[in-house]
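Q: Convert this sequence to C-alpha cells.
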Amino acid sequence: MKSLAILALSVALALAAPTMAEDIVVAHAQGETTIAQNPQKVITFDFASLDTLDALGVEIAGLPGSNLPEYLGKYADEKYLKVGTLFEPDYEAVAAAAPDLIIVAGRSAGAFPELAKIAPTIDLTNDWTRFEASIKDNSRILGEIFNKTAEVEAMIAALDSKVAAIKAKAPEAGTALVVLTNAAEVTAFGPGSRFGWLHDTLGLAPAGAKVLAETHGDVISFEYFLEANPDWLFAIDRDAATGTGSSAAILDNELVNQINAAKAGHVVTLDPVRSYIINGGLPAFTALVDQVGTAIGAF
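A:
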C-alpha cells in the first residue's frame, strides 16, 4: 500500500510540474540562434515584429523609447522598459532586464553583435527583393517561437486572398509610380526596391522607361512625372511618418497635376507610418495591401 501511495504521489507531482520549454534553432538574417520556445521576457528593437506580436497577443518587456507609432501607443506605458532607440540601444538597460530573447531588424541590425552577447538575439530584417515572402518568413518564425503557428497562418491566408484579388485587377488598372516625399525632395521606387512590393507582389505595372530599383530610391524632378505619366500615383510622406510635419503637398503642382493619375483622381497617399516606420509587420503590410486594393477597386 505504501508503494502505491508513493507512486500516486510521484504521478501527481509529475502532472503538476511545469512543462520545460524546448530549445529551438532559429535561422535569421545574421545566422542561427538557439532559444527556448515561448520566451517570457522579450525585448524588440524592431517595430515590424512588434506589429506582428501585438496582433498575436504576445506580451513584450521592452522596446525603444522613441518613434513609437500612434496605433501602437499602448507600449509607451511605463510598464514597458525603454531600452534606447532603434539605432542606439541602451545596453546597460537591456542587460539589467535579463531578457530571454532580443529581436533586431533593419535600423537596429547593426547592434546585433553586442546584443547577442547579452541574450539570445535574432535579426528579422526584411529583404526588399522578396519583401512579401520575407514578411511571411519572419512572421512564421515568430509563430514558431511563441506557439502561434495557426494564428500566423490565418493572417497569411487573409493577406494572400487580398493579394490575389489585386493581381486579378492589376492588368486593367494601368501603370503605377511609387514615390517618397521628404521635405522638398521626391524619390521614386521601382521593382525590387524598398517600396517595390506594389509591383513585385501586387502586379501593378511600373510607369516610365527608367528602372528604379535602388534601396533609397532615385531622386526625380517634377518633369519625370510627365515623362512617366502613371495611371496611378502612390505617395509616401516621410515627414508625416517621422512626425516632422508633412511634405505631400509638394506633389500638388502644375506639372504633377497634368499626369493621368492626377486627372483621374488616382493619387493615393499610403499610410506613412505603416509604409516607412513599420515597413514589414504582417498586419501593417496587410493594411497597406488593403489600402491599395480598395483604391483600385479590387475588392
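The first strand starts at residue 23 and ends at 28.
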